[in-house]
C-alpha cells in the first residue's frame, strides 16, 4: 500500500519524468505513465473477496500483481488430432524447462529464469532491437 501511495505522489509531483513513452502495437496512443499504481486504504482492501478457493482463499486484487488478473485457456493436442477435429494449429511445443521460485521475493520471475535456459537448451539466442 505504501509503495503505491508513494509512486502515485511521485508521479503527481513530476518526479518520474524520465520515463520513456512506449508504443504498443495495435494501439494508437503511447503509454506514458505507470498503469499499475493502485492507491488504496486498509478498509478498501479488507472488502475485496478472494479470487480463488472461496471462502478461504488469500489471493485478492489487493495482494496480487495486476499483471496476473484474468484467465486464459489452452487446448493441447497432437497435430493429427487437431486436424481430425478441424482445428488449425497456432503453435507447436518444441521443448520445455521447469523452473520454480520463492514467491516471497521472486514472484512472477519464472519466465526470466526459464527463457534463457530453454534458449540454451535448444541452441537459440535472442537479439533485442530498440528502435
Q: Which word captures the global form?
A: extended
The number of E-state strands comes to 2
Helix share bin: 25-40%
- Side by side, the strands of the main sheet go 1-2
In round numbers, the mean pLDDT is: 84
Summary keywords:
131 residues; mainly alpha; 2 strands; extended
Structure description:
With 131 residues, the protein is mainly alpha-helical. It has five helices and two strands. The protein has a two-stranded antiparallel ribbon. The longest helix is centred in the C-terminal third of the chain and has 13 residues, at 110-122. The mean pLDDT is 84.
Question: What's a quick, concise take on this entry?
Answer:
The chain has 131 residues and is mainly alpha-helical. The protein has five helices and two strands; from the N terminus they run H-E-E-H-H-H-H. The mean pLDDT is 84.
List the helices and strands and how they pair.
Elements: H1 2-12, E1 22-23, E2 30-31, H2 42-46, H3 79-84, H4 103-106, H5 110-122
Antiparallel strand pairs: 1-2
Amino acid at each position: 500500500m505504501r509503495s503505491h501511495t508513494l509512486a502515485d505522489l511521485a508521479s503527481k509531483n513530476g518526479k518520474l519524468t524520465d520515463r520513456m513513452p512506449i508504443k504498443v502495437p495495435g494501439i494508437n496512443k503511447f503509454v506514458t505513465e505507470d498503469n499499475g499504481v493502485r492507491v488504496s486504504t486498509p478498509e478498501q482492501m479488507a472488502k475485496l473477496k478472494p479470487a480463488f478457493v472461496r471462502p478461504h482463499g488469500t489471493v485478492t486484487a489487493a495482494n496480487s500483481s495486476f499483471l496476473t488478473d484474468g484467465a486464459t485457456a489452452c487446448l493441447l493436442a497432437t497435430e493429427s488430432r487437431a486436424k481430425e477435429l478441424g482445428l488449425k494449429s497456432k503453435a507447436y511445443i518444441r521443448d520445455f524447462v521447469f523452473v520454480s521460485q520463492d514467491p516471497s521475493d521472486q514472484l512472477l520471475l519464472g519466465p526470466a529464469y526459464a527463457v534463457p535456459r530453454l534458449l540454451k537448451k535448444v541452441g537459440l539466442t535472442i537479439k533485442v532491437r530498440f528502435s
